[in-house]
Write a structure and sequence with these properties.
With 184 residues, this protein is α+β, with helices and mostly antiparallel strands. It has 6 helices and 6 strands. It has helices spanning 13-21, 66-73, 81-87, 111-117, 132-139, 170-183, and strands spanning 6-11, 26-29, 40-45, 51-64, 94-110, 127-130. It has a 6-stranded mixed sheet with strand order 2-5-4-3-1-6. The longest helix has 14 residues, at 170-183. The chain is globular, with a radius of gyration of 16 Å.
């Protein structure tokens, strides 16, 4: 990673689950972030989940018109065309962060735990940046991409850098974590 700061994204639980399941391979943004090729992106699931779930490595960031981004990535976004158009309504530029690979934490870090680990911790409204020491404090070395934590890549894929699958049972574990964090 060339930028020493990680991009800390707040993502709706539905989309976070899709990222770790490998069905969403592009994260969309209305505003350009400073993430670069190979950059670390930390995934915080918002909504009822309120937990740090894992991370992904950015393949690259593409800026274009919303219609060009849809043509290129539509089926990789986790959105319907109607949702996509609503999200980019009034925007001339769309940003797509291609996901090289993703890995999830063995156990999510719930918001109350994040606040115990870092006084004054606030999850991002959309995004902010974290230095390496903060990443280690809130999520440990697993967030930095230990190979054992990465979602395995599909060997049959013609483009293994962009294709991955999550471990079996991920959806069930995600639901369990969501309920666990929501109750605390």
């Amino acid at each position: 990673m060339t930028n020493r700061n990680a991009l800390f994204l707040s993502i709706r639980p539905r989309f976070a689950a899709q990222i770790f399941a490998g069905t969403k391979t592009v994260e969309l943004r209305r505003v350009r972030t400073r993430i670069e090729e190979g950059g670390l992106v930390i995934v915080y699931a918002s909504g009822d989940t309120k937990a740090l779930l894992g991370a992904f490595q950015a393949e690259k960031v593409v800026a274009s018109t919303p219609s060009a981004i849809w043509r290129r990535y539509g089926n990789k976004t986790g959105l319907t065309k109607r949702e996509f158009d609503g999200y980019y309504s009034g925007s001339d530029t769309a940003f797509a962060i291609e996901i090289a690979y993703a890995w999830q934490l063995a156990v999510p870090v719930c918001l109350h735990t994040l606040r115990k680990k870092r006084e004054g911790f606030r999850p991002p409204q959309s995004y902010h940046y974290l230095d390496t020491d903060t990443v280690l404090d809130i999520g440990g070395s697993a967030l930095l991409g230990e190979k054992s934590r990465r979602s395995p890549r599909s060997a049959a894929s013609p483009s293994p850098r962009k294709s991955y699958k999550s471990p079996r049972g991920m959806a069930a574990r995600m639901i369990t974590f969501e309920l666990g964090c929501a109750k605390e």
